[in-house]
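PT: before anyone asks, these are the final sequences, not the draft ones from last week. 559 residues across everything. Please model them as a single complex and drop the result in this thread when it's through.
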Amino acid sequence: MTANTDPQHDRTDAPPETDVPAGATAHGCPYCDRPFRREDQRTLHVGLSHYDRMTEAEEAAFREVYSAEEEELGLYRLKLVGALVVVYFGMLLLYAVVT
Amino acid sequence: MERHRPRRLVLAAFGTLVLASGTALAHGGSLRGEAGTIAVPAWLFLLTGGAAVGASFLLAATVTDRRYIASIDDWHRTLRRFPVAVSRYLAPLLGLVGVGAVLWFGFTGPLAPLRNLAVLVVWVGWWAGFTMTTYLVGNTWRALNPFRALVRWVYTLRPASPREYPQRLGSWPAVVGLLALVFTEVVLPLADDPRLLATAVTGYGLATTVAGLVFGESWFERGDPVSRTFAAFGAVAPLVRSDDGVRLRLPGMGLTDSSVVRDRSDVVFVVTLLWVTTYDGLVTTPLWGDVATTVVEAGVPPLATYLVAYLLGFGVFVGVYELAARLARDTGETFFTPAALGRRFAAPLLAIAAGYHLAHYLSYFVVLSLPLSQVLANPSAPPLNPQRYGLPGFVSGLELAFVLLGHLLAIWVAHSTAYDVFPSRLQAVRSQYPFIGVMVVYTMVSLWIVAAPSLTPPYL
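LR: through. Structure below.
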């Protein structure tokens, strides 16, 4: 994504230190062996980090998971706004009561 | 980038709003009882600071456009490089003249601290003023460092290859050195006694030069606590030296580079930097005064009280950070080891340390820059009654704003790093929960220290 353009950013796709506990199922990336807890995480990783090497099937899967994530993010954003409202009015009420 | 402008404006406006309310409240808190300001109980003021940090995380989390986040991170311009003459000859010369003057006036100058060039140059000019430039502009210590210059010249005159710096030492000498330096600074009257200060500078200078002669310049890259501190602050700064010139980037965006924190010793060094600045402020609070008095009256020697509290707090800081990294493994649903997560998310703490340093030293620097300039103008015969600048009342509010600003920057950097590390965006946000929790608590602690009246630590 943003790698390689900048010598200061020595980001690589080499698998950093991971550790899969015994009994857990890991979904390994076929290109760099990085393990993931969930399959959709691996699909996203392949699309983001190995977009130049992935197969067409992987690309289709990536697009699907990505748009599903988009929907999930919409809901999450609503929750964030809800939490913001709670913080804001919580503080407002607290100030009204205290001062 | 153009099409994102409205969103950025909204973000900026919101951030300013949060900050402004935080600052206004802070003002009420620190100037309680003064006519015209609202009295706010301390707990509410601290809670507001914590809420401001929490709210900024919630806001940052709503930004989910990968490309936009990366574009902020990657924005840079390459400026012309400095003439080699400046960095190779002029800057080291300035450093050497500086350290020479500090030693000369430290050992022979007047005893009144505000009339002594050594005291003013070291504390006001260097540790307050110069340090500010390292995170606000860029780290120039590499070029200025007189001890490094000495080592370099020795190796040019007598070409021999230095011993290789052992990898397993990592940054641990810097961690131990920083702990030792700051503890010395807290327990000894280095800012009041020019002779003692000059002795301390000699001691540190000898130690670091000898280590530099043994290991060559790599000692200053890894083991020298002072160089490492300025390099760490320099990662926050907008200007950085690169191979093809000076690189300009947005403040704090150097912190997303994985080269800032390479291994566990680097993580501990970053946490140490945060802890020592906190401890420096902590010992001047009335609460510490009460605690120390009680403990010492119970029969514990004062120095041991300070040392135990120092090491205990250091342990707590490292422990809490590593706990957060362990928790992030679960909230972020990842197989990364806690150590790997700890490495990636330690650098944002440097933004907090920089904000805290600015809050802690800004008024100190401004007030004492008058005696500093007077002494610099006439080192051998400074005015008999040194004057200080007065400060307008809003400065205390400004200080609290810097603490919050450091945290806001840290939140954005962590957000950006999380998007870099994790493929799923929800995973990226969730991995931040433990770190944000720690940050909220730390904001409240540091706001409490900054706002508390500053007393002279007892028994020192």
